[in-house]
Amino acid sequence: MLETLFTIVLVLSSVLMILLVLLHKGRGGGMSDMFGGGVSSGLGGSSVAERNLDRLTIGIGAIWFACVIALGLLKAY
Fold first, then answer.
1. Closest to 25 measured CA to CA, from 40, 11, 12, 44
2. 32, 41, 43, 73: which is deepest, by most CB within 10 A?
3. How far apart are CA 46 and CA 33, in angstroms?
């Protein structure tokens, strides 16, 4: 029962992580330059929406990590 709950939360958090990472703005360099993302305007720092997106991504990542650890512990015993 508990294993099923953690598996469902893991799948949902995985899908959310993919969507949240794709919502982030490219900061230049790496893969974003390869596909035309290198042209950016330097109009300032992070907006409130970007900071909130960062916080949400970190929170969902922590939930994802906790589910992976919990499932590993459940499978070990």
1. 40
2. 32
3. 20
